[in-house]
Hints:
The chain is α/β, with parallel strands linked by helices. The protein has helices at residues 69-73, 90-99, 115-124, 142-155, 170-175, 204-214, 261-285; strands spanning 36-43, 50-57, 63-68, 103-111, 131-135, 159-165, 183-186, 198-200, 225-229, 244-248.
Amino acid sequence: xxxxPSGEWVHFDTEVxxxxxxxxxxxxxxxxxxxxxxxxxxxxxxxHTFADSYLTVLPRGTEFVVFSIDGSFxxxxxxxxxxxxxxxxxxxxxxxxxxxxxxxxxxTGRPDMQKQRVVAWLSxxxxxxGIVSFCDGLVHDPLRHKANFLKSLTEAHMKIFAGYGxxxxxxxxxxxxxxxxxxxxxxxxSKKMQQQCQFITEGYAAHLSQLEYHHPPGRRARQxxxxxxxxxxxxxxxHLLRTISAQPVPSSPTVAAPSGRRSARQSQSDSERLERExxxxxxxxGPGERGPGPPxxxxx
Length: 300
């Protein structure tokens, strides 16, 4: 769909899948799309069954923060266990980075056949919208797959600002050029790895307090065009969700009024002030006199 959400479907081409049922397609130069998220529907010509997906187009230089799903979020051994629990405060940390204007990317070494269950788990715990990367089927070296995926993003002129995970992910983030101050690891610190990352030892709540001190809400992503997924929670069964808005970052933070009451009170006080000024002018000029200028404002 070239103009979501209510545009018409555009047919691009017909391709043949490989022996694993996968297909790839390069958009022609004359049909390139602007920044945004576009629904993709792949229809089998024979029985008209179809698969839905999304195509993301990001502005050059988009900054993002990456989270390894199992290493960062799961309080149990695995999110595929019988009672997977999310680490306390993890959602708030992800939302903090999203509020600063960073694109959120979730990575996992799990095969894409587990996509529905993993994304449903993220949705269940209200994690902010983001892109989720899975391995292409079963792979022997999932850490290398993670590193290659993130490297492909940096080669596409995207910028990784920080990475979260377990001790296994330190080598992944180091391989793509992150420094120790940009790598946040959940787990017990070791002397061997103490200089390679920042360990989160007191939980996400304490970590969030440190982030809010060093990265306050007024400090936005440095990228000229802010890329942020519009909504704040994942939608089930989609690994890429809703829309990306690209807009300039304000030079100073704007604070919206919590409701319409503040605006109503301000309008009422302005009206009262104008009425008092009108009465004072009328009293100073005497009855039947009015100075030059527009008539006094009426107050409902």
